[in-house]
Structure formats: structure tokens, C-alpha cells
Amino acid sequence: xxxxxxxxxxxxxxxxxxxxxxxxxxxxxxxxxxxxxxxxxxxxxxxxxxxxxxxxxxxxxxxxxxxxxxxxxxxxxxxxxxxxxxxxxxxxxxxxxxxxxxxxxxxxxxxxxxxxxxxxxxxxxxxxxxxxxxxxxxxxxxxxxxxxxxxxxxxxxxxxxxxxxxxxxxxxxxxxxxxxxxxxxx
Length: 186
What we know:
There is one protein chain. The protein is mainly beta and 186 residues long. Helix content is 9%, strand content 35%. It is built from 3 helices and 12 strands, in the order ββαββββββββαβαβ. The strands form 3 sheets. It has a 7-stranded antiparallel β-sheet with strand order 8-5-10-3-2-1-11. β1 (31-35) and β2 (38-44) form a beta hairpin. It comes from Actinomadura algeriensis. InterPro entries: Cupin_2 (IPR013096), QDO-like (IPR053146), RmlC-like_jellyroll (IPR014710), RmlC_Cupin_sf (IPR011051). Pfam families: Cupin_2 (PF07883). This is Quercetin 2,3-dioxygenase.
């Protein structure tokens, strides 16, 4: 059983709003948000870790490549527990890397490296961790997407175009709409 808290992001949460408190969260009971067709569940964020790292999952159906973007101050980890995810990363020298990751595979994206991903199989799950000197970005998902109270999302959530800029600036996400991947893996 978990205790429910209120945070500055939502009226009801299983995550304590301050650092230094041990806590436990049952599967799927973190702070959930829907962004397009992806369900993001946050288990630990900046509030709990003094902005040193976050821990979240991203689950979704097979779909389109998310937009290329980078994080100026954040390193990002992709660990695949279920399904398959294609990760695209460009290193600081302009070399592009593309890899199909399946259950048990790991991908690391250094700060400032453009990257994107595409879920290649239905019911895929990414475990994500992000850390860096600029803090964490886990609340980007519910700022741009929509917070969820229910366990199962109903349909995709497409944000209004004007929300992209403000949410991205607030959470260390720089979208790169003109970026092209030389090999998109299709």
C-alpha cells in the first residue's frame, strides 16, 4: 500500500514531494502522463533526488519517430524491458548512430547529442533515467502532455502546437524540427 501526497504538479500522487523520504510505489502507480500515444510513468523525479536524476517508464504502441531533440544539460538512458525500440543518436562530431534495442538492451545519450526514438513493436516499454547538472526533465511529459489519474489511457493526446515551445524551454528540451536522420531504419 502506498500513501498519497500532493505535489506542485498534481493534486494526488504516490511520490512524496520532498527529498530524503523513503517510499515505495506499486507497478504503474507513479505519476502518469499521456503524450501522443506514449504513457509515461514517473517513479522518482527532481523533487525526490534534489534534481540529480529521475526514473520513469515509457510504454506505447508501435508508432512514428518522436521528433529529434537534445538536452543541453541532461544525460539520458534508455533501457528496454519489453518489445523493441529504435534509438537514433548523433554524436558531437556529427556521426549518426541507429540501433534497434530489444528486451535487456541499453542505450546512452550524452548531453547535447541530438536523438530520437521509435517504438517498433506494440507493448514496448522503456525504462528511462535522466541526470545532469541542469536538473531533470521528467515533468516535461505532463506539461506538454496530459496528466492521467486512470490506469489505462483513452486514445492519444495531441498537445496544442503553442505548448511545445514553453514546455521545452522549461524542461531542457530543444526540438530540432529540421534535423534529418540519414538512415531512419525503415
